[in-house]
Amino acid sequence: MKKVFVTGITGLLGTNVVIKLLKDGYFVIALVRQKSRYYGQEDENLQLVEGDLLSDVSQYLKTVDFVIHIAAETSQNLLSYEKYKETNYDVVVHLFSESVEAGIKKFLFVSTANTMGYGDIKGLGNEQSRQKYPFTKSFYAQSKREAENYLLRNNKTTDVVILNPTFMIGAHDRKPSSGKIIYWVWKKKLVFYPSGGKNFVHVEDAAQGIINAIEKGKNGEKYLLAHENCKYKDFFKKVNAITEQNPLLLPLPDFVLIFLGVLGDVLRFFNIKTNLCSSNMKALRINNYYTGQKSIDELGIHYQPMDKAIMDAINFFENKEYAISKVSLKPQVRLQQN
């Protein structure tokens, strides 16, 4: 039985990764801050280890073959780069150094698509695209890029594979994290949508890509886990079709987003935490599009329709909140026909 050490298993992606690892017959040792924060099922092949991300885990690494590092600081309201660097870079250096010392075969690092340059529908961003504004001004994306560069400079004895998921949707989003975008439109009578768009991927497919990379990922390579490029307006229409709702959709003018960005910059200047800033508002006005073709060709991923990801997320939210799914069966029949 192959053993793997995983961080970040209480989040959306981490939970899905652990589910698939156990299903595929791996023994998983997972680092958690508190065992009570893990809501997944108990399993004889899952060992939870309490500790923070800078804990000495060398004794556990000596018993495993692979490390999957998912844990990260993903909030968008921190005011300094150092706050992101502490989690997204310093922890990576610490964990990777211990992994090398323990003789780990392969270190898989989950980063973000925004360390690469996005494209538009005529020229999609890929693994060779250079990072662009507004993500060059994102402290989160900067810290992830710095960690990537460190790993790629030090992959001589331990193989390094970097996975770059786009915007993930699906079940087990307990916070919720990226699933908040569904709440923007779900059960609303009036919805404002920004002019841009982004790439969406089913979190199950992102998780499968990570697991496939254990065997198929090449040392020193980066893989975009990306599927469907979609305007925000069209994404909201998908949510409405699946939930059989019909709110009024109105465009959010760019000048409003520009104003909110400037307002956020001022608030940040006075050390007030906010998600608003010029770079974040710019991200809502661009087509943040990518291709996942490399992951299809080299990792063997078969991506699912985004309708399926949305449905899985909504069913999870409904079950979590009301203990019963209220999403009609009609959209499921439609998906099967597609």
UniProtKB/TrEMBL annotation:
Lineage, broadest ranks: Bacteria, Pseudomonadati, Bacteroidota, Flavobacteriia, Flavobacteriales
InterPro entries: Epimerase_deHydtase (IPR001509), NAD(P)-bd_dom_sf (IPR036291), NAD(P)-dependent_oxidoreduct (IPR051783)
One Pfam family recorded for the sequence: Epimerase
Protein name stated in the entry: NAD-dependent epimerase/dehydratase family protein
Residue ranges of domain NAD-dependent epimerase/dehydratase in the record: 4-224
